[in-house]
Amino acid sequence: MKHIFLSRNQKIYTAYNTFRKKMFEELAAKDSDIILYLLPWLLSINEQALPGYIKDLERPFRIYGIDYAKDIRSREPAYKKRFGVRRAGTLLKPESEYHLIQGLYTIGSVGSVAQTTTSDCDIWICIEKDSFDRTAWLQLNRKVNLIKDWIDVNVRMPVYFFICDVEAIRECRFGNVDLESSGSTQQNVLKEEFYRTGLVICGKTPLWWVCRNPAAPIEYETLLKQIQGDGCWEYDLIDFGNIENIEKDEYFGAALWQLHKSLSRPLKSMMKIFLLKSLLDESGEQLLCNRFRDRIYNSQNLDSYPDFSLFTMESIVGHFQETDPDTADFLLQCYYMQCEINPYNTTQKTKNRLVKDFLKRFPLDRGKQLHLRKSTQWDFKTQVEFGNRIFKRLLSVFSGITSMVEGVVSDSDRKDLTILGRRISSYYSKKAKKVHLLQSPKGEINVSNITFNLNGDVWQLFADDINTPIIWSKNIVFLIAYIVWNGLFIPNGVHMRPNPSNVTLNEVLNLCDRIKSFFGGCSVWEVPFSNYLKKEAVNRMLVVLGHENSPWYAEKVEICPIYTNGYGEMYVDRLDSLKVLEQLLKSVTKQSTNIDISFYVQRNSTVFEKLIEKTRKRIALGSANIS
C-alpha cells in the first residue's frame, strides 16, 4: 500500500513540477533554458571551454539524477556547440568517484503568476556537507562563483546561489542575516515558504511533498523510517525535515524581516507581511504549505495545476475580505501591480488564464485594473501617494503583529533583530534636518521634470505637476540634496523658474553633480549589517559655503554641511558662522575615527576659498580625510 501511494504521489508531483517549468519557459524562454537545463549540466562537468572549469579539481561534482534527465541530454549538443566543445559524445560520462549534489531547487516566484520581468531567482544547491572535505567545499564554492560570473552576463534575471547543507535545512538552521538571507529571524517560516514555492531544477524530490495519504494518514517520521528500513530510495526522495507549526515569535521576526525587505521591494513585502498577519490570526490552523499540497493532489485537471502565488493570495484576501474589505481590495491592487498582470499580453497565456479564473472569485474593478496596468506612466503625485498607502499599511500591520506576540520570549537571534530594527528605523523614521526618503510602489520614482521655484524667501520643488510643490524649504541646499538622495536628479530634467536670487540653474546642477559623486545615491540597503551594531556616527561630510551668496561679495556667509552616517542616513544643516562649523567638525571627528570631509564653493569664489583655507588651518581634524 505504501508503495502505491508513494508512486502515485511521485507522479503527481513530477507533473506539477513540470507544469511549473513550462510556466517559467513561457515567461522567460532564454533565461529558463540556462537556469533549468544548462546550469545543472555546467555543475556536473569540468571542461576547460565551459564556465566553471577548475584546473586542479580533485574530484568532479555530480547532480543526482542528471544521467536520466532527458531534457538536459537532448540539449547537450547545442550547449557543446555554444561553447565550442568539439569532443564527440556526451560529456556526462560515468565517474567512479564524484561529490554528489543532492539537488538544485528554486524558492520564490519563478514559474508562477508572480514571476515578472523584474523577478530574481534564488537557487539552493543542496549537499550533505559531511561528505565534503575542506578542499571539495572550497572548490564547489569556486565553481559556483565562476558559473555565476558567466550567468550574470548572459542571464537577464538576477540569480543568487545558496549552497545549503541538507542537515541544516532539516533543522531549520539558516544562519545569520545578510543581504539576501533572512537569518535566524525566520526559520520554520522559510522552510514553509520553500515547500510551498519550491521548484526542483534537477535532483531529488522532497520527501515532504509525497508524504500524504488521505486514505490512511501517515506521520512524516514514520514514513521516513519505513522508507529507510525498506531501502526504498528508488523514489529519489530527500529528507529536508517535516514542518508542523510555527511559533508566534518567529512570525514576528519574519514580519520584521519583510519590513526590512520593503525598503527595496515594497509590493512584494506587502503581500508577505499581510500573509504573516493572517497566519497569526489563524494560529492553530493547518499550515499554508500543507493546504497547498492538498490542493495539488486534489486537482482534477491533469494539464494544469493550481498556482501557489494565486493560492497564497486567495488565502490573504479571503482572510481580510469580511473583516476589512478596504484592505482586501488594496491588497488585490498591490498584487495586480506586483505581478504585472496584463490580459492582453499574448506571450503569457497560461498566466492570464490562471489570473482570469482567480479574478472571477475575487473581482477587481476594471477601471482599477486599467489604472494599475499603466503604473509605469503614473505622475509623481500618484506614485508617491500609492507608495505612502503601502508604507502606512506596512507599519500598521507590523504594529498589530507586534502586539499579538507581546510577552512571548523570542528564540530568534536578538542581534539579528537589533540589526533589522535599526536598518528599518534609518529608512522610515523622520528626524529634524534629515533628508527623508520618498515611498514608491516599486522602490523607485519615475519622474521626468524637476523644477525649482522661489516664493518669497521659500524655495519650492515641483515634479511634473507645476501646481503643487512636493517639498519646500528656506534652504535650497536641502532641496538639492533631497533630489539627489531620492534618485530624482536627471541633468536635463532639472529646471528653475526666473527669480531674483543669486542662485543659478548651472550652480544647482554643479552642486547636484558634486553631491552625487561624493555621496552616491541613497544606500540604506547597501550598508553593512555590522554597522547597525555600532554607535551612530558621521562618516562623510560635504560643507557647502555661500551657495545663495554672490560669489564676489558675502556680507554674511551661508554654511550648509551635508553629511551621512554609518546607518545610511543623510542630514543637511544650516550654520551662520565659521565658529559653529568648527565646533561641529571637532565634534564629529571625535565620534568617528575615519571620516571624509570635503568643501564645496561656487566657481570663481575667492572669498569662500580663503575661508575654507582658514578653517582647515584652525581645526585639528585628527584622522579625517580633507579635500
What does it look like?
With about 625 residues, the protein is of the alpha/beta class. Among the domains are: about 1-245, no CATH class; about 450-625, no CATH class. Helix content is about 45%, strand content about 15%. The chain contains 22 helices and 16 strands. The protein has helices at about 1-25, 30-45, 70-75, 75-80, 135-155, 165-170, 190-195, 205-210, 220-230, 250-260, 265-280, 290-295, 310-325, 325-340, 350-360, 365-375, 380-405, 415-430, 475-485, 505-520, 580-590, 605-620, and strands at about 60-65, 100-105, 120-125, 160-165, 200-205, 205, 235-240, 450-455, 460-465, 470-475, 495, 540-545, 560-565, 570, 595-600, 625. Strands 1, 2, 3, 4 and 5 form a five-stranded mixed β-sheet that branches. A five-stranded mixed β-sheet has the order 14-13-12-15-16, with helices on both faces. A four-stranded mixed β-sheet has the order 10-9-8-11, covered by helices on one side. A hairpin with a 4-residue loop joins strand 13 and strand 14. The longest helix has 26 residues, at about 1-25. The N and C termini lie far apart (about 80 Å). The model is unreliable at about 180-185 (pLDDT under 50).
Question: What is the secondary structure topology, with strand pairs?
Answer:
Blueprint: H1 2-27, H2 29-43, E1 61-63, H3 70-73, H4 76-82, E2 99-107, E3 121-127, H5 134-154, E4 159-165, H6 166-170, H7 188-197, E5 199-203, E6 205-206, H8 207-210, H9 220-230, E7 237-238, H10 248-261, H11 266-281, H12 288-297, H13 308-323, H14 325-338, H15 349-361, H16 366-373, H17 380-404, H18 414-428, E8 450-455, E9 458-463, E10 471-473, H19 476-485, E11 494-496, H20 505-519, E12 538-545, E13 559-565, E14 570-572, H21 578-591, E15 596-601, H22 606-618, E16 625-626
Parallel strand pairs: 1-2, 3-4, 6-7, 8-11, 12-15, 15-16
Antiparallel strand pairs: 2-3, 2-5, 8-9, 9-10, 12-13, 13-14
Helix pairs in contact: 1-2, 2-5, 7-12, 10-11, 10-17, 10-18, 11-13, 11-14, 11-17, 13-14, 19-20
